[in-house]
Amino acid sequence: MDTIKEIKDYLPEHPFFKGLDPDLIAFLAGCAHNVHFKDGEILFKEGGNADTFYVVRKGRVAIQVHHPAGGGSILDTVDAGGVVGWTWLIPPYKWIFDATASEDTSAVAFDGACLRKKCEDDPAVGYALMKRVTVVMYERLEAARLRLLDLYGAGA
Amino acid sequence: MVPRPFRLLSKRHDTHDTVTLELEPTDGVPLAFKAGQFTMLHAFGIGEVPISISGSPVVEGPLVHTIRNVGGVTRTLVEAEPGVEFGVRGPFGTSWDVSDGKGGDVVIITGGIGLAPLRPAILEVLAERDQYDRVTLLYGARTPDDILFGDELRRWADLNGIAVEVTVDSAAPGWKGRVGFVTQLISRVSFDPAHTLALVCGPEVMMRACVTELRQRGVPAGAMRLSMERSMKCGIGLCGHCQLRELFICVDGPVLTYERLAPLMQKWEL
Question: What ipTM does the predicted assembly reach?
């Protein structure tokens, strides 16, 4: 119970939840627990079950894709104040990228199935959550499109 | 219009395609300039290109240019060795006038080689750091290997109380810094929008995206200054190569307020 209380206190300060009805936050916090990752530790791997939504409190998470040649690329990083993972919302609920802690990282981890059930049971909860996830998706998509232009490249 | 001869004193390799050159006037008379201005740099027998000055406007010394090799004249400039003479016309154009930000916050947003024209403004702020409130530099580069002035970025952050935030477009696993577009940094930093001077330099698409973010934060259009890049040739507003509707960027710019640029920046025909 202490953990839930601490999460309930923290979540309203996080940019993702800022302004959301405190009762709703408390309701959602029932799906959450605190997690910690050491520098280099893996949060999830491509193809795994996308069963968690991470709200980053401290540190940095790198979203990566693995290349067949053995290398890879970091596609995005998420710092304190950001969120990691929206695939828990989208069937078939499988991670499409890897995520690794770039430094010691703390997060609030929401159980994806639990969140989905709350959204299904109460569309108002689902809509409130969906609006916020959509903003995150929109911002990442916009940034990804701009980066696709390779604006700092020699041909730009 | 006659170039003054300058001799290349030293060359520093900043990245795989970018160097910083220090040039001394052969007549011994230093070139005074304001932060944000550019010169027309002439490689004899090859041609002339506009290059922003990247040195300090408050400390007398050699003329400093940071140049990226994009072929043509710039290749000759980048490949030159100390002792070679170049011609210099200028300085030309408007300045950042960063001292207008005294007493308030300064937010500097840049990408790629755009950091070079802002370096003089940063050095000007650092020379009177106590005159400014919060100073923030947001910088986007293509990859970690393309980050300009890496040692200086760390020094500015460590010693001079500047919040320096760097992001890259892509990186290999193992990179501990940020990956993302520079606009994503804007919402993460603290400044008072009503008392902020914003200086933005980089590719025009990047600047438009930055302006959108800054406006959402409440920074007035008149407090945003952008450095425009156009094909400057004469440098004195005669030839028309750098015309942007009623503006000649070589004399009316390169630094202009967003208030002035807003009607011009989204017209495809311009």
Answer: 0.91
